[in-house]
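Worked problem 6 (solution included).
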Amino acid sequence: MRKKLGALVDGTPLPEAEAHALWDRFSAWMEEHRGDLGGFAALEGFASIQPGVDGDRPVLRVSRSAAQNPYAPVRGEEDHSGRGVGHRGGRGPGGSPARQAGPSTPDRKTVQPRDVTNKSRK
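Solution. The predicted structure is:
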């Protein structure tokens, strides 16, 4: 049984067979042209295409008019805070929550490493 893949063209779902066929072509293209979303979109007659996830189902979001965004990590429609974030399209930071929080200060001062004589290095 094939995994249930989806595709949306300007927000309208494609029938399952068409979605699977689009995914097959997309996968083959990306194997040969890593990261070239715009090339695949143009080949298919679209302005842009972006892979994403709806729940646990992979989806391709295709548009006839929206500009192509660069390839980015796949994201779902909601993050764990419950806020809608959509797929990567310039609508928020990427990466883990810890990465998004930025640098932190250590709980204690940095200790200088010691050499084998147990003397502090300068």
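Discussion: The radius of gyration is 22 Å.
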